[in-house]
From TrEMBL:
This is Metallophosphoesterase. InterPro entries: Calcineurin-like_PHP, Metallo-depent_PP-like. SUPFAM superfamilies: Metallo-dependent phosphatases. One of its GO terms (molecular function) is hydrolase activity. Residues 24-192 form the Calcineurin-like phosphoesterase domain.
Amino acid sequence: MVRVLAIADEVDHSLVGERLTRMRPDLVVSAGDLPWDYIESVASAVDVPVVFVPGNHDPEVSSSKVSRAGLHLDAGMPCPAPRPVGAVNADGLVVEAAGLRIAGLGGCVRYRQGPNMYSQREYHLRARRLSWRARGGWSPARRLPSVDILLTHAPPLGLGDEEDGPHVGIAALHGLLDRLRPTWLLHGHIHPHGQPRPDRQVGVTTIRNVVPVRLFEIERGE
């Protein structure tokens, strides 16, 4: 079993310290909209792999390049790393951590100008690319294990989202669930505001809102 600590959207100052040590996670995943230094503090406290996707309030994470000396560059000038130090950006990718396969799709449906926001049409294209990668890309004959976690910032349309523009869910996630059949879809973006947000079940997938902190176990290859 893999103990997964999932965080998103709201900083929980009580987390970093003895409480976090007692949790003993094997993996930390962030579903977006958290300060980089908060994610780094959590990661350094437990010394386990960290995987994240960006939220709509996060900076652009793919705009910089890395020099031969290992420096991050923006427009040719050194700049801070566009991600939490030591964390793996899974946005649009499939990564492996703690023995789990994690597919990531960050951001939310566009409601204003800014980074990490896309139209529903753009999300359909992004979801198809992610599905292609998860299935082996140019080597479809290569049998790949199933995806354990689909890590997103926003939830699927009509499944834990809200009707106001900034919090409408992603329609393309429905097709992605059909194609990838992950055990879990973990998302943030929707703040509970003290109200319980129950898990939802779609086929083999459990959809869970992880704002601000959730700890659970998942079996490898579940």
